[in-house]
Amino acid sequence: MSVVETLPILYKLNEMAKLQQGEGIIEVHRALLCDSLKKFYPQATNEEIHQELLTRGLFDPSESTGLYKTLKRLEAKHVWKTVQNEFEYLKEEWDGPDVPIYIYPLTANRPIVEGVEVKKNGVAYNGVLFLFVADELESEEIKALFAHEYHHICRLAYLNKAPHELELLDALIVEGMAECAVEQRYGTKWLSPWTTRYSQQTSMELWKKYFVRALRAKGVDNHFSFLYGNEAAGLPKWIGYCMGYKIVQSYIENGGVPDQRLLYKTPSKEILKGSIFKV
Fold first, then answer.
1. Helices 23-34 & 46-56, crossing angle to 10 degrees?
2. Cα(first)–Cα(last) distance of the chain, in Å?
3. What does the alpha-carbon distance between residue 232 and residue 11 come to, in Å, rounded to a whole number?
4. 78-87, pLDDT tens digit by residue?
5. pTM of the full predicted structure?
6. What is the DSSP string of 134-202?
7. Which among 270, 249, 268, 269 has a CA at the least distance from the CA of 258?
8. Which distant-in-sequence residues (6+ apart) come within 8 Å of 153 by Cβ?
């Protein structure tokens, strides 16, 4: 497994979409991009797979007819080759699993986070990895995005838990480990802004007040507020992501294993025990 050759499919979609209207464009978009993914999500319909990818950042069906220039720019930047090379390196460096990697243009309907337009997103689950990228991204930023998501693949393969079995502590550390891996390989420039969003004191206060009693909560749906924030519940934006990074960072600083091929195979409770965050 490696980077999937999505570029020919995307060019084909661009041409086919020009011959369609309305629902026809949606059907072509769904068929070309989602039919081959059914093997990864046997319990989901094509419509459900399609909707999931759209919520993650896949370009909208209505954007298909204007895709040509974007694809040419991504191709000129050697995006697929860049990710392939990085995959081969990290797979050996981290002793990670083989996975298929799908690269698609990011939607033009991008959210604004903290006053900055989002230009990338990635998601990794069920043994498959997706990257949604804008054509203006720098090569190093694409590598960092891939590394973050591929680290998720490595960690989740080690945990070997279904989404409903993951505890909140697992979720925090999954995110924290991925950012520490990015920092080790690419430096602080490409760290996500949420890693330093809250001070140590603020993080500690929120940890004791909200997180400690919820660490064993299972299921990704139950983790959403803790990861992304819920102002009504007293949880500020991105607090869980920041918390996870600080947990793993302090574990490493306290003498924990920095080698990624060993770190991602370390139990969550051991990481927490070696950090400055106590229960």
1. 90
2. 41
3. 45
4. 999 999 999 9
5. 0.94
6. -TT--HHHHHHHHHHHHHHHHHHHHH---TTT-BHHHHHHHHHHHHHHHHHHH-GGGS-GGGGSS-HHH
7. 249
8. 96, 97, 99, 124, 127, 129
